[in-house]
């Protein structure tokens, strides 16, 4: 579609992001390629883990929360994606069926009252610092710590290849809506997402193939020139 639009004279900079035909393998975005390379250099590092722990006060339907977390994986394709090498040494996305029973449960209510929060903090820290295997997946995880009947800590961690600070907020908003529906005993009614991140990655490749990268690079070379001193970092 994008190539056809370019042939019709549509500017590459205005090409729309559309939903592409789903395949088992899809290209990565340029940002994902960089994050994948960083992971390959340091696979045991947690430097690109994002997320944190939320303190949930009040009555909690744990079963509904577990279903809502699974719903989140079904809604956002990138959460069920792994990243593997092609024969020519390039990473690509492999979109897998969504995982279920993602939410891990740990009950700390048997500990002395004064020790529970410190133990929850330590468990959440450990949860956040475990590295991800981007080839095997999953690229995110969720854990619920029960301190007592009305106090829970929810830890959600994702690798930066699947989320950023802005999209973590989107995931939490969706999770809240999904939980509200599940707790009420009804099917979630969130509108279907018109595109997924793999569509953006495909669009980015088409955008480059349409010459937009060269056009923008040429613009900045004209503005800034090409003869610059090398910084001795």
How would you portray this structure in words?
The protein has a four-stranded mixed β-sheet with strand order 2-7-6-5, sandwiched between helices. The chain has seven helices and seven strands, in the order H-E-H-E-H-E-E-E-H-E-E-H-H-H. It is globular. With 233 residues, the protein is of the alpha+beta class. Strand 3 (81-85) and strand 4 form a beta hairpin. Helix 3 (62-75) packs across helix 5 (165-183). The model has no long low-confidence stretch (mean pLDDT 91). The longest helix is centred in the last third of the chain and has 19 residues, at 165-183.
Q: What is the percentage of strand-forming residues? A: 15-25%
Order of helices and strands: HEHEHEEEHEEHHH
Spans of at least 5 consecutive residues whose pLDDT stays below 50 are: none
Helix content: 40-55%
Structural class by sheet pairing and helices: alpha+beta
The spatial strand order of the largest sheet comes to 2-7-6-5
pLDDT average, as an integer? 91
Continuous helix count: 7
Radius of gyration: 22 Å
First CA to last CA: what distance?
A: 44 Å
Biggest β-sheet strands, sense, barrel: 4 strands, mixed
- Beta-strand segment tally: 7
The gross shape turns out to be globular
